[in-house]
Design a protein that fits this description.
Length: about 325
């Protein structure tokens, strides 16, 4: 349509210029019949071309990629959906409405410049323990092209009638099932899944495909935030203490193992000594003379005469001294 409009403007401009030129010539030569006929043919031709071009724009539509058009026929009271591309259609008998069927994001947030509605647009909810929370949320969705005629006929304004009001109601219902500290911390993902499930079913019934739900921020009352931060600090201290205890226990375990090893070593040494004594005793019991020989062997190496009665050993060398 933009290119065609430009062509029409150019042709009309040319027609005006040519018409002015021929009109000036006819004015200068008012009795030149051939010039007058040429002037008329030129004007009629240009007017005819412009009329044809204007009529041709009513014989087709062009739908850009990512869009869909719902055409309502005034005479048959019926609807038809056109996807992207050129389509032959007699436009005067149709009411055409174009929809963006690409993925869209609808945001409700406290930040004024980011939401679908200008100004602060957070969703205020109450927790199970009656604490007020502010929720920032973004929905990602697109219109079902195959049912675009139904969406147009039954809803017409999806964001105002479906997306916004239903999302706010579901948020209030879901957050009312949880305590504030749960919603902000341990059960945030669970809450997000519940919101997606409830919205997805309802959106699908109204020809909208929900792709994702993003809980961007959960703002808690100052008292609750302080309590959560204190709880986190206590948890960190507890984890630190637990780590210290584990280190001390490991040290005690190492010392215990080292003590057991030392005791085992001493036991092994004692066993060895006992075994040596046992072996010596066995040998002595088998050879009693060996003990006497050991006694003699321990005598003065300068001994010359040794007298014994089997029980007493006498070194005569020491007597002579």
């Amino acid at each position: 349509m933009g290119a065609l409009g430009s062509v029409l403007v150019i042709l009309i401009t040319i027609a005006v210029v040519v018409g002015l030129i021929l009109y000036q010539r006819v004015k200068e030569n008012p009795y030149d019949a051939r010039l007058i006929r040429r002037f008329k043919r030129t004007v009629y031709s240009l007017v005819g071309i412009i009329v044809l071009l204007l009529l041709s724009t009513q014989l087709y539509i062009f739908v850009p990629p990512g869009y869909g058009v719902v055409a309502y026929n005034w005479f048959t009271d019926t609807y038809k959906v056109y996807d992207d591309g050129f389509h032959i259609i007699f436009r005067p008998i149709y009411e055409l409405t174009r929809y963006d069927v690409r993925k869209q994001a609808y945001t409700m947030t406290l930040t004024p410049a980011e939401g679908a509605v200008q100004g602060q647009d957070e969703v205020t909810v109450m927790s199970r323990d009656n604490l007020e929370m502010g929720i920032d949320i973004t929905l990602l969705y697109y219109y079902d092209l195959k049912n675009l005629d139904k969406l147009h006929r039954e809803i017409r304004y999806p964001e105002e009638k479906i997306v916004r009001p239903k999302t706010r109601n579901v948020l209030r219902d879901v957050f009312a099932r949880y305590e504030a500290t749960e919603a902000a911390a341990v059960k945030r993902d669970e809450i997000q899944r519940e919101i997606f499930r409830e919205l997805s079913d309802f959106f699908a019934q109204n020809y909208i495909i929900l792709e994702d739900v993003q809980l961007r921020e959960i703002r808690l009352p100052e008292l609750v935030r302080t309590a959560i931060e204190e709880k986190k600090r206590e948890q960190q201290e507890a984890e630190k203490m637990e780590y210290t205890i584990q280190v001390a226990e490991r040290k005690r375990e190492v010392q215990k193992l080292e003590g057991q090893a030392e005791a085992q070593k001493r036991i092994e040494v004692a066993k060895g000594e006992a075994e040596a004594i046992r072996i010596i005793n066995e040998q002595l019991s088998k050879s009693p003379q060996y003990l006497k020989w050991m006694a003699v062997d321990k005598l003065n190496p300068n001994a010359k005469i040794v007298i014994t009665d089997q029980d007493t050993i006498l070194d005569l060398g020491t007597l002579s001294d």
